[in-house]
Each structure stands twice: as structure tokens, then as C-alpha cells.
Automatic annotation (TrEMBL):
Residues 295-493 form the Tyr recombinase domain. It comes from Nocardiopsis changdeensis. Residues 147-251 form the Core-binding (CB) domain. This is Site-specific integrase. Belongs to the 'phage' integrase family. InterPro entries: CB, DNA_brk_join_enz, Integrase-like_cat_sf, Integrase_catalytic, Integrase_recombinase_N, Integrase_SAM-like_N, Tyrosine_recombinase_XerCD. Pfam families: Phage_int_SAM_3, Phage_integrase. SUPFAM superfamilies: DNA breaking-rejoining enzymes (SSF56349).
Length: 508
């Protein structure tokens, strides 16, 4: 027998009001003669005064759901709850789920109803409201309770707060080029370390294909990989770090059944830090002979840097910029984005508090990435003179330009006062280096050279680390100590001299 329906307050209501939802109470008692269920007619369900019994029967609820995809009517119905409050709570939960999908595409409302119906039939908890709302906003099927890797990574990056634009762009590239194409179709809770390792194996196969095509004598084969880059081991480690960060947030989420960060268990060959190599005479000779560049990070000797700066004097709008980078080791973005208000030439000090970050071709002015990056550097007398001459030249040009001058407020500008684009500075650096017939280094190599020269000159590592904006002196010392062969040779000779001095008396 079908039980009667009741409003939340316990009053009887007609069946036609079921769309609003109703609660009811029933028991499992059977008629003593026919043994058929008594249902709502059981006299034990109510006390003598008409109120509900607190010890007999169980509560339930029902509400009409949107029709199925083929137009059939259906209800969400559940019995066996301990109290009317429990029934009302679940009923309100269902209403909120339906209201979340209301106003969206009709298919979404049907899918939410499917999700509710599936949970009731499986006797599992009702879907989480925030999770359903999130999936509706993402435009994905709400019936899938666990997002795919692609869905989670997309949502994670979209909602990641406090990321610098450059970092966000780097993460987006990892997602777009590697993580989503290789892993995106997997359910997040099905992702395993072996899947991540398989992705890196595929990336390495693509690397080999690119290299083989580049070496082919067939121009059509070479054209197939034109513009394609080889993914280095250090880039693979950064890709894994991006995935690890995203999965860490998934593990912390109470809505996701993720308990292990599989990216932490995916194996990759170790990637030692690339230490700078100096362009010694032998290396330069071999480079002139066959173009061999012995390392990924190369630096010039002080004499080679001097030769570069001498040649750069032919470009007055760039010389002071390259001089400051070469002597004080500023990063490219720090030098390009340096405002005059942060320069105190009388005191010989410069405050590094801003930088220009390049994202694609777009540039963004931001603060340094770390606390150590915000620092004050001290200028030598020669650099102060260089900047004073440059300042005078810039002001003279500004007066001559009149209203055509662009007041950027930056230290290093073009002839019209506009700031330099970081990529253009790099292009000019490479052009001047080739014109000076110097072996190739990156613009960042000037920074490496400044650090190595300072340590070779006997400057305390703490001072060098602070002026470069490094977080630790260990990094500075481990990377730049004894970069120059002359320093290492002097140390070796000094050590050998100690043994020679100790042997001398015994020989006599």
C-alpha cells in the first residue's frame, strides 16, 4: 500500500504537491491476518494526541525530478531516515542541486537529476553541491563525479591565486603542450606514476624524431620539424613539478578521492645544475675551428667582457645598460625595468624593486619573484660615472625632442624615451657580440660572469650573494666558485707550494 504524503510540518498534503517535495513516515508492520504491509495506516505511528511517535517507524521523503532524457516521469524517493530533520535536510539538498542547474541548458538539468537518481539507487551520499556547480561552470558532464586530469588541471590553474604572470604562462605551456595531451583523458583518481613516466618516454621519442629529422639530407624531412623544439631534461623536471603542484592541491581537496601524489613517485633522471663554463683559449680555438660550444651555460673572461663593452660604446643608447649588467650582474628584466627614482648616484646605490617580465611578446611590470630579489646594490666609481654620462645624454635628448619625448621614467630607454623590450635587448646583445668576434654566450651569461669575477676578486660570498639576489650563499658558492681557470690554477699552485716548503729541509 502506498503511504500518504505530508508537508514538512507533518500536515497531510495532496499528491499533486509532490513537485515541491514532501516528507512522510512509515513502518514495516504487517497485518496479522493478511501479512500485508500496514504502511502509513499503522496506529503505532502516532501517539494518542496525534503527534508522531518518536520510537516507531522511519522517516522518508520524495520529490518529483525533471523527466528523463526520453520524457519519462520520475521521483527521488528515500525511506529509512532516523528523523524528520534528516529527511528535510536531504530534501533541501536535492532542491539546491536542481536550482543549481536551473537556468542552464535543459540537458544539464536532466543530468543533475540523473546524478541524484543514481546516488539514491546506489545508496551513496548525494552529490556535493559545490562540485556540481563547479562542473556546470566548466561545461563538463556533471554525472562524472571525478574530474579528468584535463578538467582538474584547467580548473587548478584558473583558480591558482598569487601566481606571477611569467609563472602562470609557464604552467599553461606545460598543460597545453604536454600534460593535457598525454594525460588529460584519464580520470584523476586513475592517474598512476607509470602514466607520468610513459608521458616522459613519449616526449623523449619525439625528441629523437626531431633530432633525426634535423640531420636528414632531405629538405622536406627537415621542414617537418621546423620550429619544433627538443624538450630538455630540465624542462621535464619543471613539467613534473607543475603536475606535482596541481596534484598536491587535489590531495588536499576534501571533495576528491585522491590520497597519493603520483607525480612525486614518477621517476626521472636527476638533473644537476648546469654550472657555467668559461671561454678559455683552447675552447675559443676549437669554436673558431668547428663551432663547438662545450656547455649550455658559457661565460666570458674579464678580458672578453671588456672587449664586448668596448665594442658596445658604438651604441650609446645601449652601452650603459650592458655595462651595468656586466659589472653588477642584474637580470635582464631588472635592468630593463629600472626606474630613475630607484637610482641614487650621489650615494652610488640602486634599489632593485621592479622587473619587466616577458610573457610571449607581451611585457608585464612586476616585483622580483623572491624576497631576496628585492635588494640594494652598491655601484663602483666607474659605473657611477657611466650612469652620470648616460643621464646627461638622455636629458639633452629629452630637451631636444620636446613634446615627442615619452616620459617612461626608466633609466634605459630608446632615443624617444620609450623603454626597451627585453627581447630586443637580447637581440642587440647577440648582434654586438658577433660584431666583436666573441664566442657566443647568452645575455644572462653577463650576470654569470659578474658573479664569477666578483668571487675571483676575493669579494666575500655573502656580499656577492646579496647583490645578485640569491636566496642562499650556498647556491652562489656552488655555482660560481672557481669558474675561472686562473683562480683554480692559483689555488693548485698555492697548495703545491705548501708541500714543497715542507720537503725543503729534508732534502738538504
Amino acid at each position: 500500500m502506498r503511504c500518504a504524503h505530508h508537508y514538512p510540518g507533518g500536515e497531510r498534503g495532496p499528491v499533486s504537491t509532490v513537485r515541491e517535495g514532501s516528507t512522510f513516515k512509515r513502518c514495516t508492520c504487517r497485518h496479522p491476518d493478511t501479512h500485508t504491509p500496514v504502511g502509513a495506516r499503522c496506529p503505532k505511528l502516532r501517539r494518542r494526541n496525534g503527534t508522531w511517535s518518536s520510537t516507531h517507524g522511519r522517516w522518508g521523503y520524495q520529490i518529483e525530478l525533471p523527466p528523463t532524457a526520453d520524457g519519462k516521469r520520475r521521483q527521488a524517493r528515500k525511506v529509512g531516515l532516523a528523523s524528520q530533520e534528516d529527511a528535510l535536510t536531504e530534501l533541501a539538498h536535492i532542491k539546491i542541486l536542481l536550482e543549481t542547474a536551473h537556468g542552464d541548458e535543459p540537458e544539464t538539468l536532466v543530468r543533475v537529476a540523473d546524478l541524484i537518481q543514481t546516488a539514491l539507487r546506489a545508496r551513496t551520499p548525494l552529490p556535493n553541491v559545490e562540485e556540481v556547480r563547479r562542473r556546470i561552470n566548466l561545461g563538463v558532464d556533471v554525472r562524472t563525479t571525478v574530474p579528468t586530469v584535463a578538467e582538474w588541471l584547467t580548473e587548478w590553474l584558473k583558480g591558482k591565486p598569487g601566481l606571477a604572470e611569467g609563472t602562470r604562462s609557464s604552467y599553461a605551456g606545460h598543460l597545453r603542450n604536454h600534460l593535457i595531451p598525454h594525460l588529460g583523458q584519464l580520470a584523476l583518481n586513475k592517474l598512476q606514476a607509470r602514466h607520468v613516466e610513459a608521458m616522459f618516454a613519449t616526449i623523449e621519442e619525439n625528441n629523437e624524431h626531431v633530432l633525426e629529422c634535423r640531420e636528414s639530407s632531405d629538405p622536406q624531412v627537415r621542414a617537418q620539424v621546423k620550429g619544433k623544439r627538443v624538450t630538455s631534461l630540465s624542462t621535464k623536471h619543471r613539467i613534473r613539478a607543475t603536475l606535482r603542484s596541481a596534484l598536491s592541491d587535489a590531495v588536499r581537496s576534501p571533495e576528491l578521492p585522491i590520497t597519493v601524489n603520483v607525480a612525486s613517485h614518477a621517476r626521472l633522471p636527476s638533473c644537476p645544475r648546469k654550472k657555467p663554463l668559461v671561454w678559455t683559449t683552447d675552447r675559443v680555438t676549437k669554436w673558431h675551428k668547428d663551432g663547438t660550444v662545450p656547455g649550455e651555460v658559457m661565460v666570458w673572461t674579464p678580458d672578453q667582457t671588456t672587449a664586448f663593452l668596448t665594442h658596445a660604446r658604438k651604441y650609446p643608447w645601449l652601452y650603459a645598460l650592458f655595462h651595468l649588467i656586466a659589472i653588477k650582474g642584474l637580470r635582464r628584466g631588472e635592468a630593463v625595468g629600472l626606474p630613475w627614482r630607484n637610482v641614487r648616484l650621489t650615494d652610488g646605490q640602486v634599489d632593485i624593486t621592479t622587473q619587466i617580465v616577458q610573457v610571449g611578446w607581451k611585457t608585464i611590470t612586476s616585483t622580483p619573484k623572491s624576497d631576496a630579489g628585492s635588494r640594494t646594490i652598491t655601484l663602483d666609481a666607474t659605473t657611477v660615472r657611466v650612469l652620470k654620462r648616460w643621464r646627461r645624454h638622455q636629458l639633452e635628448t629629452k630637451l631636444a625632442a620636446g613634446k615627442d619625448w615619452v616620459n617612461s621614467g626608466l633609466v634605459f630607454t630608446r632615443e624617444n624615451g620609450e623603454g626597451w623590450h627585453p627581447a630586443e635587448v637580447t637581440d642587440w646583445f647577440n648582434r654586438i657580440g658577433r660584431a666583436a668576434d666573441l664566442p657566443p654566450i647568452g645575455l644572462h651569461g653577463l650576470r654569470h660572469g659578474a658573479a664569477s669575477t666578483a668571487l675571483a676578486a676575493g669579494v666575500d660570498v655573502k656580499v656577492v650573494s646579496a647583490e645578485l639576489g640569491h636566496a642562499t650563499t650556498h647556491f652562489t658558492q656552488d655555482t660560481y666558485q672557481t669558474v675561472f681557470p686562473d683562480v683554480a690554477k692559483a689555488a693548485a699552485e698555492a697548495t703545491a707550494a705548501m708541500f714543497t716548503a715542507n720537503r725543503a729541509p729534508a732534502t738538504r
